[in-house]
Structure prediction request, 367 residues.
Amino acid sequence: MAILIDNVYQQVLAIANKEQRGYITPQEFNLFARKAQLDIFENTFHDYKMALLKPQHQHKLADDIDMLKEKIAPFRNTSGTLAWNGSDGTQGTISSTCHWLENVYDGNSYRTVEITFPASSSVDDDDLLNLRAIYDGTGSITEGEGDFTIGFNKSGGTPSDGSYIGSGVLWLHIEPGYTSEQVAGRFINVINDTSPYHSAAIKSGAASTVILTYLQEGITGSESAEDNFATFANISTTTSYATYEEVDKQDWLYITSGGAKLKPLSDRPVFYRKTKVQLGFYPPLTGNIKHDFISKPADPKWTYSVINGKALYNSSAADKQDFELHASEEGSLVNKILELSGLLIEKPILAESALRNEATNEADKNN
Prediction:
C-alpha cells in the first residue's frame, strides 16, 4: 500500500511549525520528499545484503530477509521483453525503467531434428549435408536465405573435382573405417565449434543419432543429404528456458571465439553490457529475450491549488504522486524530510530531533 503524500506533508508541517521553527513550501517539500524516498529505497538493498549475513528466523514476521523482500516486491518487474535494435539477433535494449538488472533469460521454441549417421563405409567422398540456416558461406547473415552445408570427404582436403569450392561448404574429413558413432561425434564437434546457428548433442541411448537444435526461431525449409547417407526424424519444436550469464567485455571475444569447451551454446548462453542500456548476446537469437529487473519508485509530488494566497492540497491533480514505499517506512520518511528541512531553515534542533527519532526507529528494527 502506498504512503499518502498529504499525510506525510501534514506531519512534517505540524512538527516543523511547532514552536515556530519554520515553514516548508510545497516546492521544498517535493524536493526533500524525492531525496528521502530514494535514500530509503537504496538503503533497503544494503539492509538486505547485511541481513543475509545474519541467522534467519523461522517465523516470517520476525525474519529480516522476509520483511525486506516484502519492501522490494512492489518494484520487481518480471518477464520484461528486451527491445531489439538489430536484425541479427545479437543485441537488445533493456527497459527504460530498469534500475537494477536481475536476470536475462529466454523461453523460446526451437526447432529440433534427429539425424542418424551411418559408418564411414556408407559415406561417399563429397557427400553433402545441408542444414537450414541463415548462412552464406562467409558467416554473414542474409535473412531467410542460404544453408549451412557440411561436406564429407574421406580422402581429406577439398573435394577431388573442386565442384563445391567457393560455395560455402565446410569440409569435414571422415577417416575410412570410422564407426557410425565416430561419424556422429565428428559432426557434433564441427557444429558446436563453427556454427553460430545450431547446437548438437548425442541422443541419449543412441550413440549414432544426433539431436540438432536450431538457435533461431522461425526456421523453415528442410534438411537434405546427398545420397541419403543421413536420415532425419522427429522434426519438432521444444521450448527451452535458458538463463544468460553475464560476462565482462574484456572476456567477450575470448569466450565467443573459443573452442567447443568455451563457446557458449543455446543451453548456456552469455551476454555483456555494450552500453548503459544495451546488451550483447551469444549465441545470436531472433526471438524474444526476457529480463527481470528492479525499477525505481516514481518521484513523489504534493500537488496543490492556491486559494486566497494559501496552498491547498489538490488530490485530483493528474500529476499527484504518492510515495511508493512500503507503509512501514512512513515514520522514516517524515524523519528524513525533517532532517533536510532543518538544514534549510537553519534550525539544527529540528534536524537533531529528526535524527534522534530515526536512530530510535533503527534501534527498534535491530532488536
